[in-house]
Write a structure and sequence with these properties.
The protein is an all-beta fold and 400 residues long. The chain has no helices and 36 strands. Helix content is 0%, strand content 51%. β24 and β25 form a beta hairpin.
């Protein structure tokens, strides 16, 4: 019955439930309390990669079962365990937990879990989950203003939550939404909807600012930061619609060198070029909307893209289009040459580049996990407690 007895079948005499999260350079630890009258407190130990073992970094007194470790080094794994002090006795150490602090945060829309989940920089640990939406499947994060914009597939609701996961508001309904596009300069957000064939623009507080009707069927939208305009592609990529700040729509015929539907578009901020996922090919268009490159690599179905803004490299989700078959992630360099391919994903839906280390986070939807792929092509598991993760963004949050 004694929780610090080595023969205790539940605890083996060790503290239990050690959990860890990291936000920027601060690491928060918590663990299960011990209901012992003679408990003196807990010892917190940490091990860094360059150290030979664990070192005592702090102590707590009852009834505290939390600890905060500050000013930690970005990109370095921090390993922790704790012990309990009972009179002159120190228990064996708890299980070890590892977290890597860094300047970024990942937000994930987990549709069947009815949750928007906030993850640590390393993609390993849950910071919080918001239940504000029934079936979130698309999101955009305004890290400057602390807003996460969400589309709900089941209800059609369009709304937002704050950094604490609290609902800011529900602003409209779109039952055939094609995506979100965020203008970080003023915090405005665009929604494309094929149900009513429109584009709608909302300000940072969710108030409708503009509505453009009678549009052709759209496949994807993205905000072009250097031109300060919205780009929208028609279903097969025949036309690029460029929406100016004045709401003027300029239509450009792309004369595509591919066949089949367009699935995604991502813009390189410093050059103004855009990558397009177009079925069996990926293509690049210049800032004027002219096709300048189509990949030699043929994909089964290029479904999502993510850009490394520093190098111009493009990551591609290649969907096998079969329910439970092997899908892949490709990395292409800025010239479109394949650097490597990672196999073993099942119907992946989301892709995002971490700007800190140029790694890529892929959502392996049917396996309910996040896969972190280093810039060199080493794949490791991240968070694994999803049901059906659909969308992800990695951002550098504001410091409070």
């Amino acid at each position: 019955m004694n929780p610090i007895d080595p023969q205790n079948p539940r605890t083996s005499g060790k503290p239990t439930g050690l959990r860890v999260i990291a936000e920027l350079d601060t690491i928060h630890l918590s663990w299960n309390p011990l209901a012992l009258r003679d408990l003196s407190g807990f010892n917190i130990y940490r091990h860094l990669a360059h150290e030979s073992g664990f070192y005592l970094i702090g102590q707590t007194s009852p009834p505290l079962n939390t600890f905060r470790d500050v000013s930690n080094r970005f990109g370095m794994p921090h390993i922790y365990h704790i012990t309990a002090r009972v009179d002159d006795l120190e228990t064996p150490p708890s299980q070890e937990v590892t977290v890597t602090p860094g300047p970024t945060i990942a937000w994930v829309a987990d549709s069947d879990n009815r949750a928007v989940i906030k993850l640590t920089h390393d993609g390993q640990h849950e910071i919080l989950r918001s239940r504000a939406f029934i079936s979130p499947y698309r999101l955009k994060v305004d890290h400057q203003r602390g807003a996460v914009w969400v589309l709900d597939e089941y209800t059609g609701n369009f709304g937002s939550i704050n950094e604490k996961g609290e609902l800011r508001g529900v602003y409209d309904h779109f039952f055939a939404a094609v995506g979100l596009a965020l203008d970080l300069e003023d915090g405005s957000i665009w929604v494309g909807d094929n149900g009513e064939h429109l584009l709608a623009r909302f300000d940072e507080d969710g108030r409708l600012q503009a509505r453009i009707d009678s549009l052709p069927e759209l496949s994807t939208i993205a905000f072009h930061p250097s031109l300060k305009e919205l780009w929208a592609l028609t279903m097969n990529g025949e036309q690029l619609l460029r929406v100016k700040k004045s709401q003027q729509v300029v239509r450009a015929n792309l004369q595509p060198t591919w066949s089949g539907p367009v699935a995604d578009m991502a813009i390189i901020a410093n050059t103004g070029e855009a990558w397009i996922a177009a079925g069996k090919r990926v293509a690049r268009v210049n800032a004027e909307g002219r096709v300048v490159f189509t990949s030699a690599e043929e994909f089964r179905f290029a479904s999502r893209l993510a850009i490394d803004q520093a190098s111009g490299a493009c990551w591609v989700l290649d969907d096998s289009r079969e329910f439970r078959n092997n899908s892949s992630v490709f990395k292409l360099d800025a010239q479109g040459q394949v650097q490597f391919k990672i196999d073993g994903l099942e119907r992946p839906q989301g892709l995002a580049v971490n700007p800190f280390d140029a790694s890529c986070y892929a959502l392996d939807t049917l396996q309910g996990r996040l896969v972190r792929i280093s810039a060199e092509g080493i794949a490791t598991n991240g968070y694994t407690n999803f049901l059906t993760p659909f969308d992800i963004e990695v951002v550098v949050p504001r410091r409070n």
